[in-house]
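Morning. Coffee machine broken again, so started the prediction first thing and wrote up yesterday's gels while waiting. Chain of 260 residues, entered below exactly as on the submission form.
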Amino acid sequence: MQTFNGKTALITGASSGIGEQMARQLAAVGCNLILVARRTDRLDALARELQSVQVDVITADLADSHSPQAVFDQVLNLQRNVHVLINNAGFGFQQPMLNIPMVEQMGMVDVNVRSLLALTQLFAVPMAERGEGWILNVASVSAWFPIPGMATYAASKSFVLTLGRALHEEWKSAGITVTTLAPGGTRTEFSGKARDSLDPNLEKAMMPADSVAAAGLRGLVRGKPVVVPGWHYKALAAVVRLLPMSTVVRLAGAVMGRHR
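Came back before lunch.
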């Protein structure tokens, strides 16, 4: 990851989980940081720890439609060039759709889709002007599955995967590398919020956030279009392509229903 030494990375959802681990790993190779999340106290605490590099903190709720432009404007005010954009912020619910209030559904789409798309385009423009840039969008292995019981979340991550695959090819000529990280179960605060309780078998398959973060950053440096950490999740993403979609949906619904 020495590629990022002396450069600046902006990370959304940087206050915990995969985003926090990416911040730590990038700081360790001398990459300056702009940390974005809702929880200022968490960001400030992390910034104090990572004093070996320049760290700026921007508090933003990406469910707010004005936030992507506000974040971009604050970066301009800081007079910082963002070389690496990591769209990590996201959330979801493991519940039947009719049990989730509409405001929560739309908030999920706002954070997982709209803000990611807006930030990607906003920061890609100056990257293209410089002829260099790296964008890492965090999707999920659920992007391969229509999942009854997690319908909106899975659909939102499918958008991220499809967008990333297209932009990986489209922006090569502009000098921008676009990589999509698609982790399976990861031990983060998100996993606890998405479901009320964790099945012991599901817990065993979950990966540490630092390993997932490292896999994503390695894939970005290597210019990979998609990174799926963990052999078991790689196998899952491969096998699902061979099955009839009706079977995939039925099995996904059965598994998610069992773990609710």
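The chain has one domain: 2-259. Going to sketch it on the whiteboard this afternoon.
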